[in-house]
Amino acid sequence: MTGAPSSANIGLMETEEKRATRYDSLVPKVRDTIHVLGIETSCDETAAAVVADGKVVKSSVIASQTKLHEKYGGVVPEIASRAHIEKIYPVIAEAMEQAGTGKDDIDAIAVANQPGLTIALVVGVTAAKTLSFAWDKPLIAINHLHAHLQSAMLSQDNPQLPAVALIVSGGHTCLYDYRSPLEPKLLGTTIDDAAGEAFDKVATILKLPYPGGPSIEKAAANGNPDAIKFPRSMLGPKSLDFSFSGIKTAVLYYCRGQDMKGENKVDSMSRQEIADVAASFQAAIIDVLVKKTQRAAKKIDAKAVLLGGGVAANNELRTALRQMCDSAVPPKKLLVAPKQYCTDNAVMVASLAYYKFKAGLFADLTLEPKATG
Ligand code: KG4
Ligand code: ZN
Questions:
Q1: Which end of the chain has the lower number of beta carbons within 10 A, N or C?
Q2: pTM of the model
Q3: Nearest ligand by distance to the CA of 219
């Protein structure tokens, strides 16, 4: 046979058994502490972190690309990918330095390989595979959404389970049945826009600065949440899915008129009017998120509620979910991701990887990025 060798005949494709044996020889038999280097490049943050035993954060380095995407009002994949390429090795080197770890202290390399922008993910995946190969360390593939969920577990020891987990980010709005870090079961997801996406788009309509979520929250602080009754789409009495495109359109019509000719209405709105729209929009989104979480909690008889993802940084959402949990009979424990680990970071990747490490769930060097997951 001529042509380039396939991955199988150059030995990259391993059977589970072969891989387990190889990694078995790499993992020291007795090791008090497991250090994982985590890598995250799914969207517009280049991040690396070292976490010990899934809980102790030794370092967390994030190179944000907000400035690069600001003028486009959203993430431009090509720009994101190029910025990851530029930053990935300096960020990893800084994470290793801050943690005071050398390659011999690292037990595994973990990387978020799905879901996300494939041309962004591929940068982290390639870096992780290169280090795994060069340093002879096990490689661990992490689902970015499951990692967001893990960030809510960071400071918790053995919460009562099952829990219902709400992950709200720029690309996803998901509810999970959570019984173990390794197998969260998807209960519902968005059928159109994600909650964070709606925040970002409404901020653009209101001409508020990028990224939209924090800008809306800031503007809403001075507004009346009951000023405008925006629609709350529940998708029927039993659905655990979400739809936020209707509310986004409602805000657009409110600001520009049904015929969309009122282009300049936002320019002539007072600060108070803008604040009222922001507060009313935010209240409607939170209302839906809380009611659906309550519905899911009832369905699986959840003992606790987990909250993670970029939108989980929103104080009003945190407060509303806390009220829901406190007033439940019996009350439910609310576990919220620390603010610095709500938006994308690599601590959540390295933390979740610890549990995959313990379970022997390793990837091989054929690992690829995937847009969905
Ligand atoms: O998890 P994340 O960093 O990236 C994705 O995986 O998508 O989430 C980013 C999203 C953006 O849509 C941003 O506007 C939103 O989280 N966000 C917020 C807040 N902070 C960030 N949304 C509402 N309120 C906030 N305080
Ligand atoms: Zn994310």
A1: N
A2: 0.91
A3: 1
